Amino acid sequence: MAVLNPTQKSPERAFALQKYLLLHSQHDALQKHLHQVTASIPGSPTSSTDRNRNSSVSSDSSTGSNESMNPPSQPTTYTRSRRGSLPSSFGHMQHLPHELRIHPLPAVVDETVVEEIEGDEQKLKNVNQQIKTTLTDLLNCESVKSDARYRLWVQKRLMDTERELKEIRSKSCERRRSEDMSL
User: Fold this and answer.
1) How wide is the angle at C-alpha 60 spanned by C-alphas 156 and 27, nearest 5°?
2) Of all helices (H) and strands (E), which one includes residue 154?
3) Rg (CA), the chain
4) Which of 6, 43, 100, 163 sits a CA distance of 20 to 30 A from 130?
């Protein structure tokens, strides 16, 4: 195999990066849609307290390299718990003293909204799995292995994605336990 100039990208690296950028875009769109759906539920907290994943995945235009990409901030999942088919955004009310709870029982959520949220959550999980696979492939590219800075950038995103997948699994287990207890 020919040795690549460190400033030159391999086709494998370029393809994996393009795939990651596309998946990242899908991830952001799904999160935005989930947020809009959950925000439309009566009694749902406003978006001012939510953290959003930074969509600025850009490269240094002067060099054309991807090594100086700005990392997105911590990913946020907009999942919900099964407690009464409510979004997890209502979970904040558990931690408030009783006197501060304005609406302890929010309005009943339409089942079609719940199904839409569940569908989008599954799509988000699938996109995260694809992102994990793509980032792992990217990490295994020779040109990434030889570029410490870029390798760290990829590793950070891989860890963020794995953390988000772990949160999704945890919430899914919690939801199943809650459903089992309600039977």
Assistant:
1) 45
2) helix 148-182
3) 20
4) 6
* Residue 82 to residue 80: CA distance in whole angstroms: 7
**Domain coordinates in residue numbering, the chain:** 113-139+150-183
Beta strands in the chain (DSSP E): none
How far apart CA 159 and CA 135 sit, in angstroms, is 10
CA distance 71 to 90: 30
Which long-range contacts link 83-87 to residues 24+ away (Cβ below 8 Å)?
83/178, 85/109, 85/111, 85/114, 86/41, 87/38, 87/41, 87/44, 87/117
Length of the chain: 183
- Among residues 84, 86, 82, 83, the alpha carbon closest in space to that of 38 is found at 86
pLDDT 10s digits, 4-28: 454 467 899 999 999 999 999 999 9
Alpha carbon distance, N-terminus to C-terminus of the chain? 61
Nearest to 78 by CA among 103, 111, 41: 41
pLDDT, tens only, 49-93? 344 444 445 444 333 444 444 444 444 444 443 334 444 544 544
| Residue 39 structure tokens | 């925000």
